[in-house]
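Ticket 4471: requesting a sanity check on a complex prediction with D-glutamic acid. Repro inputs:
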Amino acid sequence: MNNNAIGVFDSGLGGLSAVKQMLKAMPNENIIYFGDTGRVPYGNRSKDTIRRYAMQDANFLLKNNVKMVIAACGTVSSVAPDLESVLKVPYTGVVLPTCFTALKESKNGKVGVIGTTATINSHSYKTRINQKNPSFEVFEQDCPLFVPLVENGFIDRNDPVVKLIVERYMSNLKNAGVDTVILGCTHYPILKDAIADYMGKDVLLIDSGKETALYTKKVLSENGLTNTSNEIGNAQFFVSDTPDNFEKIATLFLEKDMNNKAQQINIEEY
Ligand code: DGL
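Returned structure tokens:
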């Protein structure tokens, strides 16, 4: 048993889709979340920059004595998988848990992956799926406008702007006949309804936040790190830009009010 917090980070708000699922799956756990809102987006930056940012994000969480680090960010998980080897606490990104689910759930072996440009260029999901099952066909599509849409609150499934952009990005996957789509960026679950409307009800959408939360629960239990307290856990939020916009959009992600105000930190110090 270990009552220290779980540390979760993302380039911005997207990782809150994992936090929302963690609060559901592990209500007794304490969570420390860092959103690098001053440097979002990561997805169109170089590998070296993304790795440096990811290390700073993890260092901030470790300074707060977290018992596990979660990169709730498809981009970091894809571009900096070696982060795991330098941390002294258990770590997961989002690629592994979502690929497990796609391999298990797809019936026709045709899987779509959507993510940021850096994620798609890394072929991280495709590589992982084909390592496990080479007969799977994986269709990849980057969706660079999705993160700014979400960060600015354009998430309504009936908004014509949202519908148009979804159609533009998803049409190749639809034409390819995929029966499963990995939402390979943690910002994307918030656009799930709009994506589902376009792809149709027979296509399974895999929420990277949800799969990662469930996987985290398993890792904590396997490592004897579960919080056994009966009290509801505390979630604290830190950001690298002013907290105002974060707090407004965060309630959309979490689908509830934040109990604690977000605090601003200087991430360059870590
Ligand atoms: N949530 C991040 C991801 O999963 C956002 C990407 C970005 O910052 O560009 O990739």
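Notes from triage: The chain is about 45% helix and 15% strand. Leaving this open until the requester confirms.
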